[in-house]
Amino acid sequence: MKPVLKSKPFAAFTLIEVMLAVAIAAIVLVAINTVFFAALRLRTRTTEATERTLPVESAVATIKRDLLGTVPPGAMAGVMSSDTTTAGISQPVSLEFYTASGIVADEVPWGDVQKVDYWLQVPTNQTASASGGKDLIRGVTRNLLATTQETPEQQVLIDNVQNLRFSYFDGTNWNDTWSSTLSNIPIAIKVFIDFPAKSGGLTNIPVQFVVPIITQASTNKIQAVN
Question: Of 177, 165, 207, 172, which Cα lies nearest the Cα of 187?
């Protein structure tokens, strides 16, 4: 007669093991949730920084291109000035000068020389103005032979700007203004762009850069060009 094999009893989890497994799963879920929401916050901050940085970089590139193409006073260009007024602009102009940064195309009759004005203007959007920021405006006049002074074509480069300032190097000193009575142009121009404080005490990083002016008006003395 063959012996009868007894089956082993079924091994089950104890209550302590189940509770331990649930606790570990809860800890893992909390960790995953923390990492997930941290990634979402990082993505939001990165998006905000990118949206803020791209317009500033574009504006800086535009200002640099205009300043690098500065044309000295002559037949087609007037004087550079930080103390002038322009028709159609109610705000004080921070800088007015002539530059060869204009685009020459077959469909337009204008050459590459154009008059450019930079100034700050209170925005029409009251939400933006509540923070103290203004719009950085670039005004362009292409028709330099008009019999009457034309209103510049206006373009908003950056919004929410607190301060726009230009400094002019005459070869010896940096000057805060450049008078329209001068017949020459500076050797270099430094540009300062400041932004108002953000919520929570945070501030946007101010922008500062120097642009050398390659072209100089002819004078009776030999002058070094940087």
Answer: 172
